[in-house]
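Appendix B. Worked example

We walk through a single record from start to finish. Start with the input: the chain for HAD family hydrolase, Candidatus Thermochlorobacter aerophilus, length 239.
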Amino acid sequence: MAMPLNPKALKAIIFDLGGTLLHLSYPFFREAFQQQYQFELQEDDFFKAVSAATDAISRLVEENKNTSDASRLPIFFEHLLYALPIPEDLISDRTAYVRDFILREHHRENLWRYLLPDTLDVLQSLQARYRLAMISNSDGRAEALTIQYGLRPYLEFVIDSHEVGVEKPDPEIFAIALQKLDLPPSACVYVGDVYSIDVKGARSAGMSAILLDRRKSLRDDCIVIRSLLELKELFLEHA
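Next comes the structure step. The output line below is what the pipeline stores for this chain.
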């Protein structure tokens, strides 16, 4: 059963960054696949593959909590490639090459750089009632990304795992946020897109958690939303 959530009892909402506030860049992948495979990648197929790769990473963390975010990144992109509806004869002998090409681009310019149109409006609306912050498993670029895409004015602080030396799902990184907010876990909720990292991590620190899943997976042990607009409805219209 999903844990009950009372928006009126909450004081703060803490967000994940990649896959929650910023999404993997469909325009980059569309262009890359046209160049590499002469294949026209559809947006719906792309985000279905992103969800499948995200699920694969969640299962990986369930099996081995000692993996790092950096070590999981190539695995994520490889799962993404295999989940896309690309003819096998096109992808089979080029998967490693394309995966490494994607990784190089990500290291050059973070690929989680796609801001959905309603994101800033949702944050502005939520900020009127709740304190907002961020915890991200990142590589030192989280703060700069929030500034670049206009997210930073809505956030009290950004915790980047690279800077604090601990990653989700370790409860310690959530404890850092709680200390900064000077709030008990019961007054905070965490919103993220990877169940074993975000939901389980937040719960291990005593917080409530909400899973953002574009497919709205049928989970009965946590609240699942398909978009940030659903989050706005949950916290403002039903509060």
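Two observations about the output. The longest strand covers residues 131-136. The chain has eleven helices and eight strands.
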